[in-house]
Amino acid sequence: MESIDLVPQTDPASALDPAAVAALVRRVRGPVLLPGDDGYDAERSGFQLARRHRPAVIVGARSADDVAAAVAFAGDQGLPVAVQATGHGLSAVTDGGLLISTRRMSGVRVDAAAGTARVEAGAVWGRVVEAAAPHGLAPLNGSSPGVGVVSYTLGGGVGVLARTYGFAADRVRSVDLVTADARQLHVTAEGDPELFGALLGGGHGLGVVTAMEFALVPVARLYGGQLVFAGEQLDRVLEAYLTWTDAVPDELTSSVALIAYPDLPQLPEALRGRYLVQIRIAYTGSAEEGERLVAPLRAVGPRVSDDLREMPYAESGTIHRDPSDPHAYDGDNALLGGLDAAALRRVAALTGPAAPVMTVVQLNHLGGALARGGGAVGHRDARWALRLLSPLTGDDADAALATVRALHAEALAAVAPWRLGRSVNFLFGSHGQRPDAEDVARSVHDAEEHRRLTELKAAHDPENLFRFHPAAAADRAPATTAVPAVTH
Question: Which residues form the domain of 413?
């Protein structure tokens, strides 16, 4: 699928100082690319094809020194900075500025004796899972092996083991950070507790993270997989699931997804044109106890498929089966303090087979260890995360985006009585370009935490160099706007 490129097309490099660019090229090990250069389009593209950065200059960083050089150049030239690793969830897309691409910084090192992993800025979760598995260890990774570790973690990180072990951010030991004045810091809870805590849930607007060390957990296997029901059983499944989650132990993390699959030949025949309800299970206890726990769900009725099984943790990416091919999409979410089946049925009615666009609905069961911990992760008391994602298709990109956002807004209105805010990890589109960008920014944390992050942002980045982030437009993001994590 081609990128829709929902950004004006101008010549962002026209005002650059050629001598300064030449000096940057000499200083960094990675490539320096301008619009029109071979590799420029590939470097600015990520998993999210709906939008691409169109920077004045790209630095394909190979090291923390490259990142520092790029930040210093941007400061000297008055260019705002964006960062991209995998490009799953883009920061606010810009026409101009400097883009630091970190995908070449993909190192992963596991210290089995210490039970830790150190990863570079461009590493993806699949590599960490693979490196930890031979030692009987696991990271607190997300459902997709291809998502970048660093930005996922800076946004909190609700993963496969979330209710058992909490947010990925809760396990971080240290962060290597390039600041707005191009200094390289090693940030720890002991050395700078305020900055360290703000990074873990407050995110990339405070600098560019070049590496991170975090604790692993002793998990070598899981009982997990999917129970898939036909859409005709929707009401019974939702009632049973909401009741069931009231009593499950913290060792069980689950979600339910509602997907109306289009009738397309590239889809497996079992999915084409079907509306399915998928319950995803990850349980760290025994398979025997797992079978007992899921029995009430199986009792709902016949399943389209049922692949619950004991598996090595290295196969945890098969539980959700997230798409691995880049595509264009937009999404939104709500963190909820409660929920009832009637509201969830309303969401299903709006987003099901009769909806104007395909919408994947996912309801994550929260609580457990997620409710405990520190850092700047917002709304830890949420019991649910309701996530909406829709592909963007057709020739009229603006019309497609408007349709999707109107549908998502209507669906999320059904859960308004329980809404606490948003999770920055699940802001799948470029929210900085929304007319309600400031409201989105404020929804990620409560008012006091938002104020604290705003003050830290102003102190650590007074010129607002790192202004591109999911919840504030680049052209109206003053240094006094709090910056949630860039989910790149």
Answer: 221-424
